[in-house]
Design a protein that fits this description.
Elements (H helix, E strand, L loop, with lengths): L1 H26 L5 H23 L8 H23 L4 H62 L1
């Protein structure tokens, strides 16, 4: 998903730069069209960043399998409580069940941490990507008029 998004964004950015170069060549260096293409790239980078802030999941990262396992764990815990009330003489068996549930809980926590770590990596990559877009656009915006004078004169 991220690679498709990057391909599309790079294509749009390339088109913005090419249009800026063509307009600069057509209207001349005084038009500052190339520099304005840098402003447009900066705006695109900011919009992508804002979109990601509002639309990417920033809260819990819980896979559906883990939700089912958690619900099952809750159900088993409730059954365990009822068994303890009904069968006080079966404490050894209950302790074994508790150990099993504890082992399941530890396993769920490990799985959840792995999922959370895996989910953070693409977010960090997107942030670096967006910072690169914003920086590139800002440099073209700021120095595009000098670049166009150097290239087109």
């Amino acid at each position: 998903m991220i690679s498709e998004k990057k391909k599309t964004v790079w294509l749009v950015l390339l088109v913005c730069v090419l249009i800026g170069v063509l307009l600069e060549k057509y209207f001349g260096p005084d038009s500052l069209c190339f520099a304005r293409s840098g402003a447009l790239i900066t705006i695109i980078g900011l919009l992508i960043g804002l979109y990601d802030v509002w639309h990417l999941p920033m809260g819990e990262v819980v896979a559906p399998e883990l939700k089912d396992e958690m619900n099952q764990h809750i159900h088993e815990s409730e059954q365990l409580r009822q068994l303890r009330e009904q069968h006080a003489n079966d404490q050894i068996r209950h302790l074994e069940i508790s150990v099993q549930l504890l082992n399941k809980s530890i396993s769920m926590i490990r799985n959840r941490l792995e999922l959370a770590n895996a989910a953070e990596k693409p977010k960090k990559q997107l942030v670096k990507f967006e910072i690169g877009i914003i920086t590139t656009g800002t440099i073209i915006w700021a120095f595009g008029d000098w670049i166009s004078y150097a290239v087109f004169q």
